[in-house]
Amino acid sequence: MKILELELLSDDVSKTEAFYNQVLGLETLYRDNSSVSFRAGATKLTFHSSKNVKPVYHFAFDVPNNKLLEAFSWIESKTAIMYVIPPDKIADFYNWNAKSFYFYDNNGNILEFIARNDLDNASEKSFDGKSILSVSEIGLVSKNVTAQCDELFEKYGLTPYSKQPKLPKFIVLGTVTGLFILVEENRDWYPTYKKSKSFWTKVVFNHEGETRVLEVSK
Fold this sequence. Notes:
Distance between the termini: 23 Å
Strand content: 35-45%
Oligomer: single chain
Radius of gyration: 16 Å
InterPro entries: Glyas_Fos-R_dOase_dom, VOC_core
Largest sheet: 7 strands, mixed
Structural class: mainly beta
Protein name: VOC family protein
Helix content: 10-25%
Strand order of the largest sheet: 6-7-8-5-9-11-10
């Protein structure tokens, strides 16, 4: 699976544009009074204006698997990186064969840079915003994770990620190139104490050669 487009909400589109331009080095593709779009590698990332919604999402960007430490230094020079288990700021997902780190954007979204060693994506270029490969994960929140999993299987044929066992309140669907992270409402977004809530989300993704659209109303 690959995430081609991701659309989210932001209560301050202007500050969002500034953050993603200046901190992540993403190019603005389109901007009007109510939305802004960026190119994040193979993914088009769009924020639509909302008012007093205070939306908070979790999503991840893939980076070349030999560039995580360079990406860490690059981001740390511009914004704070979270602790995962102090004093560590890099999470080791050994069962996924991946490592990552986390930081907030201007909206309070929990962003993640993740390097997956199962992918052949090493780069010899110095890390910057153009090194970001894609949005590879988006968190989806519901009151019943098992029911949501069954619904996404029935509608899209999505199956659990082979490296992540299904849990009652946490299920990961997709493949190493694109994942939906299903979590129960009010679960802490790792590695924070922010409670997961559902907000409007639209995802255009390719699964088994077919382009599909998933829209979550709330």
